[in-house]
Design goal:
This protein is of the alpha/beta class. It has twelve helices and ten strands. 47% of the residues lie in helices and 11% in strands. Strands 3-4-5-6-7-8-9-10 form an eight-stranded parallel beta barrel, surrounded by seven helices. Strands 1-2 form a two-stranded antiparallel ribbon. The N and C termini lie far apart (86 Å). Bound molecules: phosphoenolpyruvate and manganese (II) ion.
């Protein structure tokens, strides 16, 4: 073959490369359009059935010289690149992301606003144990200027033999007491079928650390008509945490708050390790309010004040803390719950520090 012939063939290849490139780019642009349609319809990006059909059609139309396996492999690479493109675009536009919404989300319930400036104190017992117990705490919280009470009725306990919570009876107690004192209530829901129950009895649905990646629960919370407080999973990365929040927001419920509650490390002197760095990172990455639970993160009472100060200094929008009228008799988390006088001292010292900015 003369050099001239070789150059001519290479010229044809260069031209085909350009055409292939143009076609691949055109294909990529179409897959991006498909991604937008799928996103709005809530359809998954990856469709293995459709991919198999496309590969079968291509294999059947193959006239050589490449064998079938090579054709399948080549096109599989093109499909994979298109899928990566769809997912990258999607990530850039996460609904919970600051890139998507620069203004802080303000979560509202009754007359309480969380996020966007003022700080919030969420306090109350670990578990709802009785009407008297909740009423005693609620009266004290009201007198101290706290607007939001917490209390678990469905308790996700490590041992099946431990107190599991009063269930619906507990939610009824919380509502009755909160109505009397005009408080906003937060309580954990563990069952996707309980969202209507939640709307009936509580103001904010808590999704606990153990359920942060219970995707059916997240989807159900996304359809609820009341705000959601999402706890960081015991071993969740911040990306996983934000993705969990995205599940809720993408289903239509934009009233979501994040709460750092400590992650599991090798440390034994605290129940979990309070990840303060999560606060500024979550505030940077997301427009959702960020709270810090100083009780479950530390598991002890003696360091809740400095930890709460650190959380506020790092940019948290609020603090959660457990308070019980008689902690030694508590049916759950007895070691970490503050007595009412201890809480009053904690709250007044936090306010005195100048870090807690209350409306
Ligand atoms: C709680 O707040 O009642 C609770 C069980 O916390 P966590 O899910 O963070 O362990
Ligand atoms: Mn608890």
């Amino acid at each position: 073959m003369s050099n001239q012939e070789l150059d001519a063939l290479r010229g044809q290849l260069d031209e085909l490369n350009r055409e292939l490139l143009e076609l691949i780019c055109k294909r990529g642009a179409i897959t991006q359009e498909i991604a937008i349609v799928k996103q709005t319809q809530g359809i998954p990006k990856y469709d293995p059935v459709r991919e198999k059909q496309m590969l079968d059609v291509l294999a059947a139309a193959n006239i050589g010289p490449f064998d079938e396996a090579t054709i399948r492999h080549l096109f599989k690479q093109i499909f994979k690149a298109s899928l990566d493109l769809q997912q990258k675009d999607h990530k850039k536009h996460l609904l919970v992301s600051r890139k998507r919404q620069t203004d802080d989300t303000v979560v509202r319930s009754k007359n309480v606003a969380i996020g966007g400036g003022a700080h919030i104190m969420v306090a109350g017992p670990c578990s709802i144990e009785s009407y008297e117990q909740v009423r005693t705490v609620a009266a004290a919280l009201k007198a101290s200027g706290v607007h939001v009470i917490r209390g678990g009725a469905f308790k996700p306990r490590t041992s099946p033999y431990d107190f599991q919570g009063l269930g619906v009876e507990g939610l009824k107690i919380l509502k009755e007491v909160a109505d009397e004192f005009g408080l906003v209530t937060i309580s954990e829901i563990v069952n996707p079928a309980h969202m209507e129950l939640a709307e009936q009895y509580i103001d904010v649905i808590q999704i606990g650390a153990r359920n942060m990646q219970n995707f059916e629960l997240l989807k159900a919370a996304g359809e609820a008509k009341i705000p959601v407080l999402l706890k960081r999973g015991i071993a969740a990365t911040m990306e996983e945490f934000l993705m969990a929040a995205e599940y809720v927001v993408s289903r239509g419920n934009t009233q979501v708050m994040l709460i750092e509650r400590g992650i599991r490390t090798y440390e034994k002197w605290t129940r979990n390790t309070l990840d303060i760095s999560a606060v500024p990172i979550l505030k940077q990455e997301s427009h959702l309010p960020v709270l810090v639970d100083v009780s479950h993160s530390t598991g002890r009472k003696d360091i809740v004040l400095p930890c709460a100060k650190a959380a506020l200094a790092a940019g948290a929008d609020g603090i959660m803390i457990e308070v019980h009228p008689d902690p030694p008799t508590a049916l759950s988390d007895a070691d970490q719950q503050l007595t009412i006088p201890q809480f009053d001292q904690f709250f007044s010292q936090l306010k005195q520090s100048g870090l807690f900015n209350q409306k």
